[in-house]
Amino acid sequence: MRKFETSCSPARVGVDFQDGRLTVLHDGSVAWVGPNLDGELEREYEPDELAVIEGLIGTWNGFVIDYRTIGVADAVVAAMCERWPCVVDDEDGFIEWGRAISKSQW
């Protein structure tokens, strides 16, 4: 198990690597981030949704974020999108560049 903290403005984020996924602690809440190793995400998308995602980012690797509160989900998305090109699907019809997301869109 490896733990570290990273600066993610304005609050601190604690991350724990465990059981093949990240556990992220932020403002008293938790999120779990794991890779889409079994291709589940690709099977869930309609062809037109896949076309939008691939049109934005090309070849991609999916990650699933399960979370308790929207604040920790926002922190995870913000941290990932600061470092890598990300496309986010909120499962409510929004598929867009992660940097385009504001908290009001969650």
Quick tags:
five-stranded antiparallel beta sheet, disordered N terminus, globular, alpha+beta
Structure description:
It is a single chain. By secondary structure, the protein is α+β, with helices and mostly antiparallel strands. 28% of the residues lie in helices and 37% in strands. It contains 3 helices and 7 strands. The strands form 2 sheets. A 5-stranded antiparallel sheet has the order 1-2-3-4-5, covered by helices on one side. A two-stranded antiparallel sheet has the order 6-7. The chain is globular, with a radius of gyration of 14 Å.
List the helices and strands and how they pair.
Blueprint: E1 2-8, E2 11-18, E3 21-26, E4 29-35, H1 40-44, H2 47-57, E5 63-67, H3 70-83, E6 87-89, E7 95-97
Antiparallel strand pairs: 1-2, 2-3, 3-4, 4-5, 6-7
Number of strands: 7
Low-pLDDT segments, ≥5 res? 1-10, 102-106
The biggest beta sheet reads: 5 strands, antiparallel
What is the alpha-carbon Rg in Å?
14 Å
Globally, the shape reads globular
Roughly how much helix do the residues carry, as a percent range?
Answer: 25-40%
Strand ordering within the main sheet: 1-2-3-4-5
The total of helices stands at 3
Would you list the SSEs in sequence order as H and E?
Answer: EEEEHHEHEE
Percent of sequence in beta strands: 35-45%
The average pLDDT value, as a whole number, equals 80
Distance between the termini: 31 Å
Structural class: alpha+beta
